Amino acid sequence: MKYDTENFSMEIDVKEKEQLEKLYADLGMDLNMAVRLFFEESLSKNSIPLNINLKQVLNNQARNEALSPNLKSFRSADELMNELEH
Predict the structure, then answer these.
(1) How far apart are CA 59 and CA 63, in angstroms?
(2) CA angle at residue 26 from 20 to 9, to 5 degrees?
(3) CA dist., res. 20 & res. 29, Å (int)
(4) pTM score, two decimals?
(5) What is the pLDDT of residues 46-67, one digit of tens each?
(6) What span, in angstroms and rounded, lies between the C-alpha atoms of 19 and 51?
(7) What is Dmax (Cα atoms) for the chain?
């Protein structure tokens, strides 16, 4: 049976892609197959096939904030307290 297909592309961090390719190779598949399985499972379950909860979302937000180049740092607790008071 011939399927009507269309190409799909996305941007991904180079190092993450390499890590994912190794992970999926260890599982006996390539990145393309892993994405296809994700999509098929999404359609089968009519949802995102991941266990996403608020704690994970908040942890990711906190990590992103902590890694932000705009994060202000303090040399001492007193300096922090002075900043908080103003």
Answers:
(1) 6
(2) 30
(3) 11
(4) 0.55
(5) 998 887 666 777 787 888 888 8
(6) 21
(7) 71
CA 38 to each of CA 1, 29, 35, 45, 77: distance values in angstroms, whole numbers, following the listed order: 22, 13, 5, 11, 47
Of 54, 20, 22, give the one whose Cα is nearest residue 38.
20
Q: Would you give the distance in Å from CA 86 to the centre of its chain?
A: 36
Residues 15-50: pLDDT tens digits? 999 999 999 999 888 999 999 999 999 999 999 888
Residue 74: closest CA among 64, 85, 63: 85
What would the two tokens of residue 71 be? 């994060």
CA–CA dist 71, 65 (Å, integer): 7
